Amino acid sequence: MAEKHIGKQTVFLKNPPSIKATASFVGPKEGMGPLKNDFDYIIPDELWGEDSWEKAESKLVRETFAKVLQKAKLTNDQIDYVLAGDLLNQCIAANYGLRETKVPFFGLYGACSTMAESMSLGSLLVEGGFAENIVCMTSSHFCSAEKQFRFPLELGSQRTPTAQWTVTGSGAAVLSSGGTGPFIKHITTGKIVDLGIKDANNMGAAMAPAAADTIFAHFDDTGLQPEYYDLIVTGDLGRVGKQICQEMLKSNGLDIESRFNDCGVMIFDAETQDTHSGGSGCACSATVFAGHIYKQLMQGNLNRVLFVATGALMSPISSQQKESIPGIAHAVAIHRTLD
Q1: Spatial separation of the C-alpha atoms in residues 262 and 94, rounded to whole Å
Q2: Which end of the chain is more exposed for a tag (fewer CB within 10 A), N or C?
Q3: Is 154's pLDDT higher than 70?
Q4: β-strands 183-188, 10-12: how paired?
Q5: What is the model's pTM?
Q6: pLDDT tens track for 269-324
Q7: Where are the beta strands (DSSP E) in the chain?
């Protein structure tokens, strides 16, 4: 009997892992946004001394991994597993960025939900007694993502009002069996949800139904109310997707508006940075969590956070074949203390 399973999709962790440290590296555009003071490092330009955007993204992964270990006061030998992935084909940013670490590696693909996916699986490994320290991380890069999923930047293609700006950056968290918190107490695993959206320039609309489905499942499984959390934050729905998610939940009798925000809305300034609907990409939720949200938890400004990273499970091939865009969202409930 799965005694730690609650309802259909949620797990309660009896021995919650602690988030021992986080690290976040971002690009220059992100470094000019509202959260600029919360990141560990802002790279000077998109290439960062490399000869391709893909190599620059791998460097982001490599340096973020080194930084989070430094902050956690751990060495490579003390890390049991690293769980990581990204948006590039075959997850090459993570693969090449981490190949010299010699740490056991699980490569993940959850699109932009990868940070919550890695934290979910990492928590299960730590709580189950299979690991003492795990690094969970992900990355994305505006230039490499545009090149792979949309159009070459040289074309200067017109962006639609619903389009989002892929965040350049990498975020990481060390989960540990020891430590003083914050702690991961619940995990709600998302289902694949597809309402038929085919527009690759409207990712918020494609992912919003999955976010709403997971948030609703979390509260249905746990019996909690939205007021239990100081912040309910989705991964990268942007302004368009955030509104859709909020309305879908309201239509099902769940009102989260008073404590709901989205990492894609938070990371850029809508008035001055011309990012249309907001931010997106694996690094969107990863850097906002590892930078801003974790800092707010450590300072006591937030006590309970429901972190819901969202992803669009598409590929360049599926888009060319006129397939719809399935969405996924995974939720991680984080408490500053065990009280």
Answers
A1: 25
A2: N
A3: no
A4: antiparallel
A5: 0.95
A6: 988 988 878 888 999 999 999 999 999 999 999 999 999 999 999 888 887 888 99
A7: 5-6, 10-12, 18-26, 41-42, 81-85, 105-107, 133-140, 165-166, 169-176, 183-188, 231-234, 260-262, 279-280, 304-312, 327-335
Among 80-94, 153-167, 178-192, 237-251, the minimum mean pLDDT is found in: 153-167
3-class DSSP state for residue 335? strand
The whole-angstrom separation of Cα 205 and Cα 191 is 16
Instruction: For the chain, give the mean pLDDT.
Output: 93
Residue 34 is given by DSSP the state T
157: left (phi over 0), alpha (psi -120 to 50) or beta: beta
Rounded to an integer, what distance in angstroms lies between the CA atom of residue 45 and that of residue 94?
Answer: 20
- Give φ, ψ of 49 to 5 degrees: 85, 0
The DSSP code sequence of 136-194 is EEEEE-HHHHHHHHS--GGG-PPPPTT--EEPPEEEEEEEESSSS--EEEEEE----B-
User: For residue 3, what are the contacts with CB-CB under 8 A and spacing of at least 6?
Assistant: none
Q: What is the largest CA-CA distance in the chain?
A: 57
Instruction: Please state, in angstroms and rounded to a whole number, the distance separating the CA atoms of residues 224 and 150.
Output: 40
Which residues pair with residue 328 across a beta bridge? 311
Determine the Cα–Cα distance for residues 322 and 182; give it in Å rounded to an integer: 43
Euclidean distance between CA atoms 328 and 319, whole angstroms: 17
DSSP bridge pairs for 249: none
Tell me if 130 sits within 8 A of 77, measured CB to CB. Answer: no
Which pLDDT tens digit goes with each residue over 206-261? 999 999 999 999 999 999 999 999 999 998 999 999 999 999 999 999 999 999 99
115 closest CA partner among 263, 219, 5:
263
Q: Does residue 132 carry a pLDDT above 80?
A: yes
Cα–Cα distances in angstroms (integers) from residue 86 to residues 14, 19, 26, 136, 165, in the given order: 30, 21, 15, 12, 16
Q: Is 73 exposed, middle or buried (0-12, 13-18, 19+ CB in 10 A)?
A: exposed
